[in-house]
Amino acid sequence: MRQWPIWWKWELEFTPHLLKRMIDRQFTEVDLREMLENATGFKPDIVDGRWIIETRKSRQKWEEIVEPEEAAHSILVITACRAEGNRR
Predict the structure, then answer these.
(1) pLDDT of 68-82, one tens digit each?
(2) How many domains would you assign to the chain?
(3) For residues 45 and 13, what is the distance between their CA atoms, to the nearest angstrom?
(4) Would residue 52 count as lying in a domain?
(5) Using CA atoms, how far apart are residues 14 and 11, in angstroms rounded to an integer?
(6) What's the burial of 2, exposed, middle or buried (CB within 10 Å: 0-12/13-18/19+)?
(7) Which of the four pLDDT bands, split at 50, 70 and 90, describes residue 59?
(8) How far apart are CA 74 and CA 5, in angstroms?
(9) What integer is the mean pLDDT of 37-64?
(10) How confident is the model over 36-45, as pLDDT tens digits?
(11) Radius of gyration of the chain from Cα atoms?
(12) Residue range(s) defining the domain that contains residue 26
């Protein structure tokens, strides 16, 4: 089993982009946190320093894009969407 990075347990911060997507894609902060708690994997994003978190919601595959903020010891959640859709 792959070990999660040290930043995995840091506090979450949300971007304005994410807050808008929460409305558009019909999920809540509680849903988002639950998806992160039940994440199944992670891989580097195409943007340097960002990661794709693989997870599920309502039996569908989802991805959350996160950016660890070393100085603040926080994880900036950029966006979240169904895996088969356009992420941004």
Answers:
(1) 999 999 999 999 999
(2) 1
(3) 18
(4) yes
(5) 10
(6) exposed
(7) confident
(8) 13
(9) 95
(10) 999 999 999 9
(11) 12
(12) 19-82
